Amino acid sequence: MAHGGYSKRRVAEGNRVGRRSKGPGVDKKPKPKAPSLKNQIRSIERMLRKDLPPEVREAQENKLEGLKKQQEIHNRLAVERKIFLRDRKIKFFERRKIERRIRRLEKLQRTSSGQAQDVDIADQLSKLKEDLEYVRFFPKTEKYVSLFTGGDDSDIVDRRNRLRKQIKANLIAAAASGKDMEETGSEDDGLLDLSDDDFFLTGTSSDEADADDEWTDKSTRYMLHLRVELLN
């Protein structure tokens, strides 16, 4: 009898231990999802169609105005992100190409001995630095207009020129306000998948071949090798 009672106690204790072993929060229900800005705006607009006390109406109207401002910011950031993701690869390549040419010309400038050549190099450097400025500070909300594709198409040339003027005006305004203008052609795209892009893989010019940029030379050769393997 005593032995049987001991066995029952062991079973009961085991059940209690088993119940306690359940981790905290197992039976907790997931938190309800917060309503979106769009739904909050609709809800307040429906409320404002009702007959409300003046103080309640004023409070809801102020809340509605704040929510609409948040929605405008959200929509603007969404557009900027969409444009950034679409254009960042071509910006990355074009910035690399321009920087390589600048480094090559600066190296040539250090070894140049002729005045006429110095003037020519300085002129080329000035133009390349304007191109670099174009890529670095291209407006976020504009579709990127490439510097190396489109040739002499009059519409594309006109758009480039208009955007160059806009960028210069933005830089002047930023300098006047004592602020640094945010770069949009950033250097933080090291994880980009370059294997499916034809930029840099065709039409390699002598200034690229001679550029003193070991990292870019190696990466270009790697991309060429990768493309050959993919084609085979």
Automatic annotation (TrEMBL):
Residues 43-55 have a biased composition (Basic and acidic residues). The keyword Cell membrane does not apply. Residues 1-55 are annotated as: Disordered. Belongs to the EFG1 family. Its main location: nucleus. It holds the Pfam family Efg1. GO terms for cellular component: nucleolus; preribosome, small subunit precursor. InterPro entries: Efg1, EFG1_rRNA-proc. One of its GO terms (biological process) is maturation of SSU-rRNA from tricistronic rRNA transcript (SSU-rRNA, 5.8S rRNA, LSU-rRNA). It is found in: Nucleus, Nucleolus. The keyword Coiled coil applies. Keywords: Coiled coil, Nucleus, rRNA processing. This is rRNA-processing protein EFG1.
